């Protein structure tokens, strides 16, 4: 972990060094996708990780499967935990740090539930007290097991758990209890300096009345994670694959996340973003990767960017949505694609920079309720107004309406002027 010292009001003193941005990739095993956990092969993983490290990236995010880790509510399989530890150690050999996601949960359009949560044994994973207790026990176990790994970035509750709400109805208050309980459990075994986080897909930010809220994403855990996907709210189809809106989506998502945080200097991690076909034609993917990295790097307090994903899904595997097959930096034979080469070049360029992003002294005021959150998503009036300001050469921040007159908050963020929608 890289610590960034800050002054008491959340701003960086002028003499502080510019924090190094982190650049990595979400690891999708080339052979067998995540089903490879059923017969984990360290040599295959070593090969994949060496390819990733060869791009000059510094970390991976990894995912074991919840049914294999915890097939019974009171059973956590030691062998499965050992597999995860072995993968973390293999990443260390390749020079890569690791973020571990605990409860999977949702991956590439598939949901993975242990059988004790399904059919006759159905339990709502967000609200059933024993189901919450079991997940907390799993995260605590993983935290204790991973604690001594020096290349561990931290422990995340799971991947986009809010994808599970359709089959597990939950209220915002129940989500808060769920997240608070699991975050505390994840933190139990970890030493200071390791991150404890959670993630949600974009509905948390601009889905009207979605039970996972922007406030939960921006105020719980150690950093805010955002997953600005160009297919959300039909962004790429609405504006075009090379549109200004698409190329600046990760930057916008980062600024939107900063608006909801209580800590003006809270880091934001662009933890998933990618170039899904056919939303982004393959020929446009390198341009999208470069623009996404450069524009996101214009945001203060960016922790880093983690691309989805490392390797394409092999087409011998059935029933994935078409966009899931071609998201990798490497194809399913392990060959780097043009997007990988452009990604690596841009990362090297950003690491060579010696200046911090310029302050965003103007903020566009966001006035919405949980029921009108979509105004801040693609197609919404706020989203389009922010993009117009940005395209005209401005560098707008986002400020919530309830904070637009809070001079202390504005000063802590370096905001000198606010602008409201007409």
TrEMBL record:
Gene3D superfamilies the UniProt entry points to: Glycosidases
Source organism, top-level taxon: Bacteria
Protein name, per record: Cellulase family glycosylhydrolase
Biased composition (Basic and acidic residues): 1-15
Biological source species: Streptomyces gilvifuscus
Region span, Disordered: 1-20
Entries under InterPro entries matching the protein: GH
